[in-house]
Amino acid sequence: MHPVRKLFSISLALVLGSAYGAATAAEFTVAYQTIPVPSQVAQADGLYEQATQSKIDWRKFDAGAEVINAVASGDVQIAYLGSSPLAAAASRRLPIETFLIAAELGTSEELVARDGAGISTPQDLVGKKVATPFVSTSHYSLLAALKHWQIDPKSVEIVNLTPPNIIAAWTRGDIDATYTWDPALSRAKASGKVLISSGDLAKLGAPTFDVWLVRSDFAQQHPEIVSAFAKVTLDSYADYQKDPQAWLANKDNIDKLVRITGASAEEIPNVLKGSGYLAAAQQIEALGAPTVAALADTSAFLKEQGRIDDVLPDYAAYTTPRYVQAIK
After folding, report:
1. pLDDT confidence band for 20 (50 / 70 / 90)
2. What is the 3-state secondary structure (H, E, C) of 130-158?
3. Any idea where the Solute-binding protein family 3/N-terminal domain is (predicted)?
C-alpha cells in the first residue's frame, strides 16, 4: 500500500473507532444453548450487536461437547457451556479463556427417575438406564451423585443423549432416569421424581456452573468486544435481579426466551429461579482463584472417571476477570 494511503487508512480507522466507542466492528459466531438465562432478552433485542458494533452469527447447540468441537475448530469465537466441558476443553489445552460466569447451577439441573421405573431410592438406579449428555455439567453431576451414594457407575447403564433426544426417549419409556436441564428437565419432572439437584451436590463439594468463554486469538484481537459482550450480559442480569417477579411477569421477556430456547413459558421461571447470577464485583472475585480451583477439581474427577486423559498442573490461564474489570 502507498504510504500516504496507508496513513489515511490508519487515520480513518482511528476516527471510526472513536465514533463507535470502545468496540470495533467485527463478524463472529456465538454458540449458545437451550438453557434459559436473562441475557437472552438482550440477545433477542440485538443489544449485543449494538454494543459490539459487530455482526453476530448466533448458533444454537444442544450440549457442551458439541460446543467444544466448534470452538476447537475455530468455527465459534465466543461460547456458552458448562464447567465440566470447560474443564475438559482446558485439559486439552484449547486456546480459550473464561471471561464470565453465566450461571451458578442449583435446581436448574436435576436427576429425575421416571414414574413406574421402580426407582424409589438412589440404590434402585443399579441396573437401570440413565440418560445424560456426555461431558456436560449434568454428566459430571450424575457421576458425582453416584460417587456420593457409593454406587459403581459401571453398575448403571449410562447412555449419551442430547436434551431433545432425552425428551423423545422419556416419552417412549426407553430410559428409566435422566440428569439434564430444561426443556428436557421439566418434561421429565412432569412424570418423575427428583432424586438430587446440582444445588444439593454443590453443598456436597461438587459445584457446577455455566460460563461464557472466548477463543484466545479472538480476545487478543478484540478485547473491547469481549468486555462489551460481558457488559450487556451483566446489565441483563442486573435488570432481572432488580425485581425477579416483575421481570418474570413481563410476557415480552418470557416470549423472547421461549423463542430462543424452545422451553415453554411455564418452565422458564423455574429455570431462572434455579440458578444464581453474579454481579460484576462477584464476577471479578469468582473468575480468579475459585474458578481455577473448580476447574482443577473437576478435571481430577473427570480423569478419575476415565473421561479425560490428563490433568494440568495449573488452570489459571483458562480464566480471567480482566474483561469484566475493563468495563466502563
Report:
1. very low
2. EEECCCCHHHHHHHHHHHHCCCCHHHCEE
3. 27-251
**Mean pLDDT (whole number) for 105-132:** 95
Most confident range (mean pLDDT) of 7-11, 205-209, 287-291 is: 287-291
Q: Give CA–CA dist 129/121, Å, rounded.
A: 15
Q: How far apart are CA 140 and CA 207, in angstroms?
A: 10
pLDDT value for 170: 97
Q: Where in the chain is the domain with CATH 3.40.190.10?
A: 28-104+208-326, 109-204
Amino acid at 123: Q
Report field, pTM of the whole predicted structure over 0.70: yes
Q: Determine the Cα–Cα distance for residues 307 and 321; give it in Å rounded to an integer.
A: 28
Cα 50–chain centre separation: 23
List of residues 6+ apart from 249 with CB closer than 8 A:
none
17: left (phi over 0), alpha (psi -120 to 50) or beta: alpha
> How far apart are alpha carbons 178 and 129 in whole angstroms?
8
What pLDDT is recorded for position 11?
Answer: 34
CATH number of 28-104+208-326: 3.40.190.10
- Write down the pLDDT at residue 25: 60
* Phi, psi values for residue 26, rounded to 5°: -160, 170
H/E segment holding residue 254: helix 251-261
Residue 2: what pLDDT?
40
Q: Among 3.30.565.10, 3.40.190.10, 3.30.70.120, 3.20.20.140, name the CATH number for the domain at 109-204.
A: 3.40.190.10
Residue 20 CB neighbours (<10 A): 13
Percent above pLDDT 90 for the chain: 77
Type of residue at 67:
V
Q: What angle do CA 35, 185, 302 make, to 5 degrees?
A: 75
